[in-house]
Design brief:
Two copies of one chain form a homodimer. By secondary structure, chain A is of the alpha+beta class. The first copy, chain A, has a domain of about 270 residues: Beta-galactosidase, Chain A, domain 5. The first copy, chain A, starts with a strand and ends with a strand. Chains A and B meet through strand 7, strand 13 and strand 17 of A and strand 7, strand 13 and strand 17 of B. Chains A, B: InterPro entries: 6-hairpin_glycosidase_sf, 6hp_glycosidase-like_sf, Gal_mutarotase_sf_dom, GH65_N, Glyco_hydro_65_C, Glyco_hydro_65_M, Glyco_hydro_65_N, Malt_Pase/Glycosyl_Hdrlase.
Chain lengths: ~775, ~775
């Protein structure tokens, strides 16, 4: 459906994602995969004209609202500004009728412009050339720009366009906004002011239009419409053969959650500012605004200048696609906000942040843009409030992070009910919010990873230590003493493998909890010795000395499942005793989730079937705690029982395959991971792109193929490039120093532009690099 | 667009409303005009497959909910059961693609079945015959029946149908329901339980499907889906050439507002009952259920057996169409509910009741089905609670009825903001809820009309007198003394003509208030003399004796505008002084509301422009208070200033034209009134059919062409049939006696089947009829 081998202008094949044929069944795919955004907001790329099955979504990061007491907070779908009701000689324009030639819809990753063009002949034989352009400005975070050019290729034709701000939208039916106030100033500037129902976030959305006939601006007094949740204008223009109509629309979005209003807010002031902003972007016009936006993207690509020279241009395209989406989804401008599991590209997962951020996306930022990595970790620091509440509500001490997080102070927001149970016909209960507890140590792992890779002491002193200590306090209170075994256990959990609910001693969970407490003890000693004042501060805040005693008494008694006689580490207490069935029918890439056509979750839970990497994830995160032969044995054992039904699974397996030296498998899994969104599966991205998988693509390349790791605080590089790759180069930040790494099958080149030398292990050998070194 | 002259089977042309070509711009028209219902619920006739611009509506009478504190109560749009996602060889079926022949969509008024059929050839050349059938049972009020037959006319084809209950709907964005609980029993019985957010009305909606291949029931285990606000199943069937698939769906709707639960309600009990009901209708099957429904309609047409013999079959079709819609919209089963201004056929006017019921629809019931007329008036009796509150809130005494009414106890529910003001770009304020006050006397007029036509003393003793007395108390407190003129005035109102806001002494309002007080005084004397106990009861309740003193002191001092030197009664104090402009450009039937393209409401308010009948309405209601020459002079003066921008206008003008003996004009206006919904205007019914206009069609025929009136408690008959009518006959209830009236150009035949004689004026002469009399 999406095509990457299209004959494109030189150099475009690894920059442009293109849809070559109009297909109504592919609406969701393109809407999500080609979604636009700038971290402040995300705009799903629905076509201007409407189609059955479309999802128009505009999300503004951090504007969570809760529809009612039975639902959890989610990112509300804000009013749509992209829809146009286009009439040609009075009939509604739609690609479902008439004849289409030269169709193309493409997202150019380089300048983040969405372009759709085609020649359309209607039932009456009138021929028109359409070109739609759209961007969400990276230069002005509140701006959406749109442009439509229509040229009459045959005879005269009347074109009417109704356009405005349409808030008759919802989140699959849940309405998060009061109707609000609607206004048209000077028959030109449209304004809609809406407030979310529970969180009381004010939105001010503006829109204005400019029409040009053959490049000449035309005055055209529009018909005006104000309806329920809607304000619009309608223009009509007669086009002679050969004439072109250019229809520009600029829209602005401001909300009371904007950082600008964090301290001092009034709606009248925002409203005035927003109207001024609208007038200013309207005065600038599409072309100038787009230029500024394109320049901002040029800076991004310059900064994240990762490139692959490969016989297959898809490899680089997929990598750029991943980086593109990470940029558009990440609220780098505001530490009060996290990254949603579907970014800002769909309603899936309600805009909530999972461990996806810390484990799959954060590494990219740690090594490419430490400032943004820090902002994302500070979001978790702000989340301590909710984490402490969650711990308390569950009868524990310290900070227990929510499995799903929205606004930092919200605490747990995982919904309780999911899809149908095919046996009972009831909705399945989602247990993650209650018992998928490893998220707490995942966040601590990320803090540690960030700190060791950047050396950012300031972050640790302000935020990091407190997070590590208070989570360790949680884990210590969470441990359960087993008198018979004489050990501490963690029972009744869900591990990363979500097909196993209510298990005892999930290896990943236990090891990571152990890691968390051990880390706290290590930093306890460090602060006590080196930073007595800071130590005193945290001791007073968290009663550290008492906590330390508990940690010490429990740490070595935590049960860490060991390899059995076949070197297999049991995923949990009962996994290895469960029935094994042939999973071949369900393992096909096309069959994600198909196991549930035949079994319900209870039944799947009683078989050796894993949704995703679990023990493998443990090997990836704590790699030097396990012997290579143990890793390999477990890889072989568990992989065949893993359905990869989670998009978090493939990249981890690819990295481990790289570690094991199986280049072919590693590349195969990388490609499959890339195809989660970019592949042919038509509905895979309907609810939004897969943020963790996109972060995983970068991980496959940099941590897998280039073998970048932080081990015991040291940087490691151990490339295993896929055979058809000629070169991989990328920037890498290490301890505040920007490095440039370039890898070919023959050599590794490292450039250090900082004035101080950098130490790192290259293929296991310690090296010191000043300026440029070749290995 | 709709065709009534289509070659139909004998006798069908005056029973069937047909759409002969599929047109996406006509979606709203057919959805509303062909809407189904049974008074309990109303179902808009959207196609099974979805189209852009469609409105799927299912309303259950009386289930009002208020979205938030900024909106008023409205009838919530309940979950959709009519949508089917049909795939042919994997591609979504839509009439926007492929080739269509033999298309027809028709509503048969006789058995209230909606049938849509066509032959469709897809892009791949596969030819299929589709027939969709649907009814909302008049026999089982909680039942919706649907049936789809698909026959393969060429080769083998895979047909998939996804169907269920979809609550991802809203009222133009306002969501009235909590998400609710979803369940599938035995892979067959789908259930959705939802509760309205504010009024806490529980809905239980069920659905079940049956598939037959060439008449043989097939077991087909469906795929099941539970999503947000949605529960569905999907079936797939392979059809060989010549094979037919029959897909039946039955759906049931129950709510906690059902009369059955008025005293004793629990959700588990309703849920159990609803599931039992679903299983029972499923067991019965479409055909048997439809037969029972058709029989119920046969009874209706037998009871309301009005017929016209005319050279134009449209006349009878339009009349039947009016009766059909009155039946489907009227909650005859439950006196706690009123009739919405759009019936149950659209979101327009939010399901609220206006004076439309009492003035335009009630006469039909008074003379055709007095029991239902009484139920509708009892709804207003129950509304006294809200009316008293409204009076109090406005600083008045007694009962001041709300301009718009929802649940009886709600009081005023008129929204405050309307369409755009083309001058200021802001929303226009709607004043009716504050100052359109004639509704109170309109209701009293209807009580009086009902009482004098039926002689229902029981109604009066329980409800009627109290309504009349307490509204007279309101009016007495509402009157304003003008010292200079030495009279009581009613200032700052909107009369029936809503283009004149904030006027003083609207003639209609003043005369009707006078009528209201005068009537109260009359019944005061009657009760005091004839029914001392009842008198005592009301005196204690309402302090009648004091009230009577006030009435007496004010009645004759109420200012009743008199004809001027040109016999013109001023519509209000300033109307006749305003500018007169040429309204020709706006008077065309196609141009309803077009005045607002050029002027805003303030500007229209300052010219002699009327939206609708105002003085004419007064002549119609209180006809023997005005001399014929005054009526005619005013008719001629005001008609040319009246745009008929309200659907309440034409029928009144038609009746007056009949009174004046202008048969041609009377028929012309009748036809225009009928064309409000049935005519070619493509968007006129988008928000729903025009309930008052439909009642007005019956009024044109029976009160206009047959000249039926109640004057001073006496029945009058004075026919003026249109020239091309050969016969008009209809049933007429008078004083509890069922009469049959039959009128030809030559004679009038009256049959009285009661044992007692009936007195009536025929063409002005008093007659006594026993058995049958010919005049």
């Amino acid at each position: 459906m999406l095509n990457y081998n299209k004959k494109l202008p030189d150099g475009a094949s690894d920059w442009v994602v293109t849809e070559e044929n109009f297909q109504t069944l592919a609406l969701g795919k393109c809407e999500a995969v080609m979604a636009l955004g700038n971290g402040y907001m995300g705009l799903r790329s629905a076509a201007e004209e409407s189609y059955v099955g479309e999802k128009r979504n505009l999300f503004v990061n951090g504007t969570f609202n809760r529809f009612d007491e039975f639902e959890v907070s989610e990112l509300p779908n804000a009013a749509d500004v992209t829809g146009l009701d286009i009439r040609v000689d009075g009939k509604r324009f739609t690609l479902e009728q008439g004849e289409i030639t030269e169709y193309s819809r493409s997202l150019n990753l380089r300048d983040a412009e969405l372009v759709r063009s085609f020649i359309w002949t209607n039932a009456e034989g009138k021929k028109l050339e359409f070109t739609f352009r759209r961007f969400v400005s990276l230069d002005r975070l509140h701006l959406i720009g749109m442009k439509l050019d229509i040229k009459s290729l045959s005879g005269s034709v009347k074109v009417s366009i109704a356009s405005g701000i349409d808030a008759q939208v919802s989140n699959s039916g849940s309405q998060h906004f009061h109707e609000g106030e609607k206004r048209i100033y000077d028959k030109k500037y449209l304004e809609l002011i809406q407030t979310t129902t529970e969180s009381k976030v004010d939105f001010v959305i503006g829109a204005a239009h400019r029409l040009k006939l053959d490049g000449q601006e035309i005055e055209n007094s529009p018909a005006m419409e104000i309806d329920r949740r809607k304000v619009a204008v309608a223009y009509s223009v007669d086009l002679q053969e050969g004439q072109s109509l250019s229809f520009e629309k600029v829209a602005t979005v401001h909300t009371s959650r904007d950082l600008a209003y964090a301290q001092d807010y009034s709606l009248p002031a925002m409203r005035e500012h927003a109207l001024g902003d609208l007038k200013s972007v309207y005065a600038a016009g599409y072309d100038a605004l787009f230029q500024d936006h394109a320049s901002a993207w040029a800076k991004v690509w310059n900064e994240y200048g990762i490139t692959i020279e490969s016989k297959n241009s898809f490899d680089l395209l997929a990598l750029r696609f991943a980086l593109y989406h990470m940029v558009v989804m990440t609220p780098a401008h505001d530490r009060r906000m996290g990254i949603g599991a579907k970014g800002l590209s769909g309603e899936g997962y309600k805009g909530h942040s999972f461990w996806d951020t810390e484990i799959f996306i954060l590494p990219f930022y740690i090594y490419s843009n430490p400032k943004t990595a820090r902002s994302l970790l500070e979001y978790r620091y702000l989340g301590l409030e909710g984490a402490r509440r969650k711990a308390k509500e569950n009868g524990y001490a310290g900070a227990m992070y929510p499995w799903e997080a929205a606004w930092p102070s919200d605490g747990e927001v995982t919904p309780v009910w999911g899809a149908v149970d095919i046996v009972t016909g009831e909705q399945t209960k989602i247990w993650s919010g209650f018992i998928e507890q490893h998220i707490t140590s995942d966040i601590v792992y990320a803090v540690w990873h960030y700190y060791r890779a950047t050396g950012d002491e300031d972050f640790m002193e302000r935020y990091g230590y407190e997070m590590i200590f208070d989570t360790a306090i949680f884990w210590a209170s969470r441990l359960e003493w087993d008198e018979a075994e004489g050990r501490y256990e963690i029972n009744e959990v869900v591990g990363p493998d979500e097909y196993k609910e209510h298990v005892d001693n999930n290896a990943f969970t236990n090891y990571m909890a152990h890691f968390n407490i051990e880390l706290a003890m290590q930093y306890y000693s460090k602060l006590e010795t080196e930073r007595p004042e800071l130590f005193k501060h945290y001791d007073e805040l968290l009663n550290l000395k008492e906590a330390r005693k508990v940690w010490e008494s429990k740490l070595d008694l935590i049960y860490l499942p060991q390899p059995n006689e076949n070197r297999i580490i049991p995923q949990d207490d009962t996994y290895l005793q469960k029935e094994i069935i042939d999973l071949t029918p369900y393992k096909d890439q096309e069959k994600v989730g198909s196991i549930f056509n035949d079994y319900n979750l209870d039944q799947v839970g009683n078989m050796q079937i894993s949704k995703q990497a679990d023990i493998m994830m443990l090997f990836f995160l704590l790699e030097n705690k396990f012997a290579p032969e143990v890793k390999l044995a477990n890889y072989e054992y568990y992989e065949e029982k893993t359905l990869h039904d989670s998009s978090l699974s493939l990249s981890t397996h690819s990295i481990l395959a790289s570690d094991f030296g199986d280049k072919e498998l590693a590349y195969h899994l990388f490609k499959r991971a890339a195809e989660i969104d970019l592949g042919p599966k038509i509905h895979s991205s309907d609810a939004g792109i897969h943020a963790a998988s996109l972060g995983g693509i970068w991980e496959c390349v940099v941590m897998g193929f280039a073998g970048v790791r932080m081990l015991d605080g040291q940087l490691h590089l151990a490339p295993k490039l896929p055979d058809h790759w000629e070169k991989l180069s990328f920037p890498l930040h290490w301890q505040g120093k920007p490095l440039e790494i370039s890898i070919t099958p023959q050599q590794i080149s490292i450039t250090n532009t900082a004035s101080e030398p950098v130490q790192l292990f290259v293929n296991g050998e310690l090296q010191v690099v000043q300026d440029t070194a070749i290995f």
